[in-house]
Amino acid sequence: MKTTENIKTGLEVCANSFASAKAAAAGGAIRVELCENMAEGGTTPSYAQIKLCKTQLKLQVWPIIRPRGGDFLYSEDEFEIMKEDIINCKNLNCDGAVTGILLANGEIDQKRCAELIQLAQPMPLAFHRAFDMSNNLKKALEELIELGFVRILTSGGADNAYDGMTTLAELVTQANGRIEVMPGAGINPENISTIKQTTKASVFHSSARIMVKSQMQYKNTTSKMGSIADEYQYEQTSALLVEQMVTKIS
């Protein structure tokens, strides 16, 4: 039976920037899932963000390999982009990368996933919450184990990990140490202890985000650059929130 190596209790932080990754490290996280565009569920971060995290921070760096927001059914061009991004991560000595591809019927795209795993070797790959959008979680779990993914990020198919605790506990039991089942989505200092106790998982995933107010003195209130309501603020990981969660699961 294949088993995951040295699964340790800890917190993985979904970091949307080098600044967030730095805060995650300061708060005691064991690794970051590095991404950009969290409003779209996270997309592949820039080369520079990855490089800075790998060269300046002392925690594991796992960039997300996702060329766009939306669904997880990708065109040939998008798949080629994903492969190039995996090569970049290997060249930057990333500890691993996080990805996920589905077929139109909601099943795991085993052919393409196998190709990415082969391309990434010896760098390991984890499967993100595309898992929650698959049509059969228990079947998908076995397929991802067989493919060679080392970890699955999941809310148990629910809107958040707290609501999905029962299913998460079942997935942890089913996995039986063959793959790391990592609860994520909506995890915070108030619910992480309950989620740990109920699911019996070892590692948890949180963005630990707060809103940071802009330091701009002049603000143009008649023009917008994007779709968010207030562009004079942004989201960033809080080292304090990370520390609070790490303390509760240690």
Account of the 3D structure:
- By secondary structure, this protein is an alpha/beta fold.
- 35% of the residues lie in helices and 17% in strands.
- The protein has one domain: Copper homeostasis (CutC) domain (TIM Barrel).
- It contains 8 helices and 10 strands.
- The strands form 4 sheets. A 4-stranded parallel β-sheet has the order 3-2-1-8. The chain has a two-stranded parallel ribbon with strand order 4-5. Strands 6-7 form a two-stranded parallel ribbon.
- The two termini are 28 Å apart.
- The model is unreliable at 1-5 (pLDDT under 50).
Main attributes of the structure:
two-stranded parallel sheet, 10 strands, four-stranded parallel sheet, 8 helices, TIM Barrel, disordered N terminus, globular, 250 residues, alpha/beta
The gist of it:
It contains eight helices and ten strands. With 250 residues, the protein is α/β, with parallel strands linked by helices.
Blueprint (SSEs and pairs):
Layout: E1 10-15, H1 18-27, E2 31-34, H2 47-56, E3 60-63, H3 76-91, E4 97-99, H4 110-120, E5 125-127, H5 137-147, E6 151-154, H6 165-175, E7 180-183, H7 192-199, E8 203-206, E9 209-213, E10 233-237, H8 239-249
Parallel strand pairs: 1-2, 1-8, 2-3, 4-5, 6-7
Antiparallel strand pairs: 9-10
Biggest sheet descriptor: 4 strands, parallel
- Summed over residues and divided by their number, the pLDDT gives a mean of 94
List segments where confidence is low: pLDDT < 50 over at least 5 consecutive residues. Answer: 1-5
Instruction: Write the element-wise H/E pattern from the N-terminal end onward.
Output: EHEHEHEHEHEHEHEEEH
Number of strands: 10
Q: What is the CATH class? A: Alpha Beta
Describe the global form. globular
Radius of gyration: 18 Å
CATH superfamily descriptor: Copper homeostasis (CutC) domain
Number of domains: 1
Q: What is the CATH topology descriptor?
A: TIM Barrel
Beta-strand fraction estimate: 15-25%
How far apart the termini lie comes to 28 Å
User: Mind telling me which CATH architecture this is?
Assistant: Alpha-Beta Barrel
Fraction of residues in H or I helices = 25-40%
